[in-house]
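Annex B. Sample input.
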Amino acid sequence: MSESLEPSSKRARLEAGDKQWRGTKQRRQTPQYKFSSFVKEQHKKPLFGVAFNYHVAEGGPILFATVGSNRVTVYECTSGGSMVPVRAYADAEPSEDYYTCAWSYTSTGEMLLAVAGARAVIRIIYPGCSQPDKTYTGHGNAINELKFHPKDPSLLLSVGKDHALRLWNIETDCCVAIFGGVDGHRDEVLSGDFDLTGSWIMSCGMDHALKLWSMNDDKVVTTVQASKTFQAQSTNRSFNTLSVHFPVFTTRKIHCNYVDCVRWFGHLLLSKSCDNTVSCWKPGGLTDALHVVNRSTTDVSIVLRFDYSQCDIWYMRFGVNYEQTLLAVGNQVGKVFVWDLMDVDPTKPGSSEPAVLSHPKCATAIRQTAFSRDGGTLICICDDGTVWRWDRKKP
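Annex B, continued. Sample output.
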């Protein structure tokens, strides 16, 4: 295990604040993927979450995890196109139904996997060693998504059915902050994501709202720092968790139904609802920097919409690769739509046409997609407990 690799030039440019749309003057070939293999997990129940481990050293195994029912499975992608299970876990509580998973690593470099779901318990699993699992409770209902901070592997974000987001420090075992309350979400929070710098969180949910929260707020920064030195075993009091009631920005102008997935795309955002569209947009005007957006901002700028078909059910999450150059989303009849984000030009009609992947045996809802670090492998998970592997064709 090693710390996350240095970002590529494309990702570093996004992080540094390159706001220019990245369409090319001459259209590149639409990304082509070929079917490699599929497996069906023994429980045969819906799979809801999938995530690749981006923290493996270069040349190491390509690992990803799937979650569904009360099961967690870690797979290795082989060079021959297959998927080999290397670890499997079953929760002791049969009623558990895992919805989400996320990878990180400890201060000593050991990889770890966070999982959560219907029972509102976050479980930290250590696949590579015999260290005992850890659990965190605090959400009042199901946890819908987990995300680790891009710069600090000890900070974990969870979003839940209790209308709140929680920030955890998994090294010192404390809840750092709760985002919600007075001006928070009014229904389930379905998705949340950090931007590449870790300065902003965008959340979305069943209330049709997208909310921007600042990690650079003075109180948040102070509380995060305090959490790093907190020692639960040497004190008789719990950590003084910060309550953040007011987001920086809120909008309901992007979608007219549940917003079930949101991801940062440089300084822009990608989000989807149940309307067969992934929207690319940003708060405020196109030239407005995020730090000038505030609670009085009402404008949004919609840059582009990525249209697809046959997906009017919710909790269907798209995937973006590590370099933020590829986008993939599945629909409810087993098809996958893939876009090359480097080839999209909002000024040119038709530049956002996707490649469509399908297989005769894949006919149920694809709940989530995920790319390997280099974008060479695409994994899709389905309602019938199947896991599908697609590999990019060599030019």
